[in-house]
Amino acid sequence: MFVGWHMTTKLITITPDTPMLKAREIMDEHRISHLPVTDNKGRLLGLVTDRDLREAWASPASTLSVYELTYILQKVTVEGIMKKNLITATPDMTIERAALIMHDQKIGCLPVLSSDNRLIGIITTADLMAVLLKAMGMSDDSGRLTVLVRDRVGVLSRVTSILAEKNINIRSVMVHPLPGYEGVWQLLLRFRQGVLEEAARVLEEAGFKVLKEYQEDLTPYLPE
């Protein structure tokens, strides 16, 4: 999965001379939290966030009347508050790399630039959450089983082969280390609700211990 496949391309942008009050109205109207600032050639100049506007609102609010504050916000432009030293992405960046950058830098979005530095998209934490949910096969008609396994070559192949022999389709598979248990991994298997119980039975008959719900004590479910 790459950023270019999942980024938002129908962009709402502003220019540096956009008044802060207008930027606030645009965010409220479109229910967004990030506004890229571009020039007339579509090149990225900066970014204004909901937080930037709230902080700008708060700074003079204690000493000005509502009318004075409104007047100032109609005149003051976003050029003075926009972030200019931005971390950006390219369309060929992987989704997981984008997620890592946003997590490590504690930012809510990455503007996406073309090879000639034009703004062509934006990817946000909400976009990443949507990708994760789709990757996990989340839907109202699906359910999940968890199998704890040792970190060994071929274990995933064995699980999928057992299910394939019984013609049970897996909607999604995720593999994640089990916190606090070195060398133990979680196989997160999602199925259509109609085959969930059969899938659990087949795996248990093959010797796997299947978790259907949260258990505080995992001792009985740990692989040998």
Mass-distribution shape: elongated
Q: In what range is the share of β-strand residues?
A: 15-25%
Low-confidence segments: none
Through-space gap between termini: 35 Å
The helix fraction, in percent, is 25-40%
- CATH fold-level topology of the largest domain: CBS-domain
Q: Average pLDDT value?
A: 90
The count of DSSP E runs of length 2 or more, i.e. the number of strands, is 8
| Sheet with most strands | 4 strands, antiparallel
Secondary-structure-based class equals alpha+beta
Number of helices: 8
- Mind telling me which CATH architecture of the largest domain this is? Roll
InterPro entries: ACT-like_dom_sf (IPR045865), ACT_dom (IPR002912), CBS_dom (IPR000644), CBS_dom_sf (IPR046342), Diverse_CBS-Domain (IPR051257)
Domain ACT: 144-224
Keywords: CBS domain
Organism: Thermodesulforhabdus norvegica
